[in-house]
Amino acid sequence: MKFLDEIKKLKKHKKAIILAHNYQTLDVQEVADFVGDSLQLSQEAARVEAEIIVFCGVRFMAETAKLLKPNAKVLLSSKNAGCPMADMITGEQLREFKKQYNNPIVVCYVNSTVEVKAESDICCTSGNAIKIINSIPQEKTILFVPDQNLGTFSAQKTGRNVIVWDGYCNVHHHFITKDNVIKIRKEYPDYALLVHPECKPEVFNQADLVCSTKGMADYVKEHDKVIIGTEVGLFEQLKAKFPEKKLVPLSEKAICINMKKTTLNDVYLTLKNENNEIILDDDIMKNAVKSIDRMLELS
Ligand code: 13P
Ligand code: SF4
Which residues line ligand 2 (CB under 6 A)? Predict the structure, then answer.
């Protein structure tokens, strides 16, 4: 295939690496050096030695890589790939939210803007939210932004009182429903139901396991007969990796259009032309990286 060879050559020549999220299309996942969930991708960005990082995912993920590797050129393979949930709270709104409480601890989901990260105490992902909440002293008031569902799930699991912002992921909140659960449980009664914590409580409370996309991939390695309750990209990846296993998506409508914006052609052109570079304000970066570093220390 034309792109594959060209991408390989360019990667070597430019000392570049390609990171891709689990929701990317399969052809994009195939050219990546590393594919994973948000936590794994930030850990990988912090670890790698590369002059150029091409990020196949959405903007906040590439920004996180830039925060962790400020001297690398971080390129977002599709310029317009954003995460609508990340834009559901601004830095200004968070400052106002904090003022309503006495010295709260702000936990921000990594699906957030750099400005919001800079206003937060500690960051988290769907893979470590419980650990992060548990690390906060009991007497502290906890504010969680922007995802109401991950915030609520973490509160339930830790028994802590967590005050949540009312953001949500359209894909998980609206396109994975209680009715999907009722229907699939009837059709596949002996399958395990795995659900992402960005789903509503009425969905995640019915699951056998609530976890990040990596948690789901790990589970499928060891088990058969699994219902995958997240964006369909992960189901497609697992189906391709384990064709002999019985896997079904909880909802075929759970498609993140932003994650699907990146094509192989975009990856090739981004690497070739070194465009769509992530440029962040120095002062904001200094504060934002602290919340990510605190998270990685605990992970
Ligand atoms: P994961 O970190 O579980 O891969 O989730 C990222 C995301 O954007 C989910 O919608
Ligand atoms: Fe954002 Fe939802 Fe897409 Fe994840 S699936 S990137 S949370 S819109």
Answer: 58, 83-85, 111, 169-171, 198, 231, 256, 258-259
Task: Provide the 3-class DSSP secondary structure of residue 126.
Answer: coil
Query: What CA–CA distance (Å, rounded) separates 239 from 100?
Result: 47
Residue nearest to atom 2 of ligand 1 (CA): 38
Average pLDDT (223-241) is 98
- Show the domains of the chain with their CATH numbers: 4-81+261-279 (3.40.50.10800), 86-168 (3.40.50.10800), 176-249 (3.40.50.10800)
Atom of ligand 2 lying closest to residue 169 CA: 2
- Cα separation of 54 and 270, whole Å? 7
Q: Whose CA is nearest to atom 9 of ligand 1?
A: 198
Q: Rounded to an integer, what distance in angstroms lies between the CA atom of residue 161 and that of residue 152?
A: 9
- Protein residue with least CA distance to atom 7, ligand 1: 38
Which pLDDT tens digit goes with each residue over 59-79? Answer: 999 999 999 999 999 999 999
